[in-house]
Amino acid sequence: MQQNREKEDTNLDLASSWDKRLNKVQSRFFELEKELKSLISSLESEKKEADKSKIPLEIFSSNLGALEALVKYLRENLNFKYKYINEISNKSIGALGKTYASASLKQKEKFVIKDFKNSIDIEILFAEGFTVLANIILFLRDSKAMKFSEIAALLSRNVKSVWTVYHNAKEKKNKKQDENR
After folding, report:
1. Backbone torsions φ then ψ of 180, nearest 5 degrees
2. Alpha-carbon distance 47 to 51, whole Å?
3. pLDDT tens track, the chain, 181 positions
4. Residue ranges of the domains in the chain?
């Protein structure tokens, strides 16, 4: 009987020990779950912000000029204010307003984006004092090594127009580099 009681006490001690361990594991699990949810939420927020700096190339294949398409997309799809667009583009708020008004007359509806994989950083679009279209073409040709025909198809433009914009921008770029030497 004494042995049975000792066995029961040992079993109770083991059960109590296992309960404590289980509680510790469950507690740690819930802590990790909470940390993971917080991390996921943070990453989703960062992704949304990163998405705002990526502009889908699809918008430039519309019947709008490149700057018109960009301003319309920034205003309507990303809800950017003119002041913010002014800061990133160095274009006057008045000019941006006129550009947006013109774009809105040509295309009433908001852009519906189907392809986010072909996108470009917003900083590239306003780089080096070139037009938005020239910056797109320079980037696609020089950084992505795309053919003029591929660029033309992507932007719904004539191949000769793409070639002309590229070569004029390259000449301007080379001239600037020569002046800086």
Report:
1. -80, -5
2. 6
3. 556 666 666 666 666 777 777 788 788 888 878 877 776 665 555 444 444 588 999 999 888 999 999 999 999 999 999 999 998 888 999 999 999 999 999 999 999 988 778 899 998 998 878 999 999 999 999 999 999 999 999 999 999 999 999 999 999 988 888 887 7
4. 126-181
SS3 91: coil
Task: Report which DSSP code applies to 110.
Answer: P
CB 67 within 8 A of CB 100: no
Q: Which CATH architecture has domain 126-181?
A: Orthogonal Bundle (1.10)
pTM for the model: 0.69
User: Quick one: tokens of 95?
Assistant: 């000019």
Any bridge partners for residue 121, and if so which?
Answer: 54
Residue closest to 103 by CA, chosen among 45, 148, 62: 62
Cα dihedral 98, 99, 104, 110, rounded to 10, equals: -140
Q: Helix axis angle, 66-76 relative to 82-89, nearest 10°?
A: 140
- Residue 97, SS3 per DSSP: helix
**Torsion angle, alpha carbons of 119, 99, 84, 87, to 10:** 90
The token pair at 143 is 């950084």
Query: Which residues, at least 6 apart from 154, have a Cβ–Cβ distance to it below 8 Å?
Result: 57, 61, 118, 140, 146
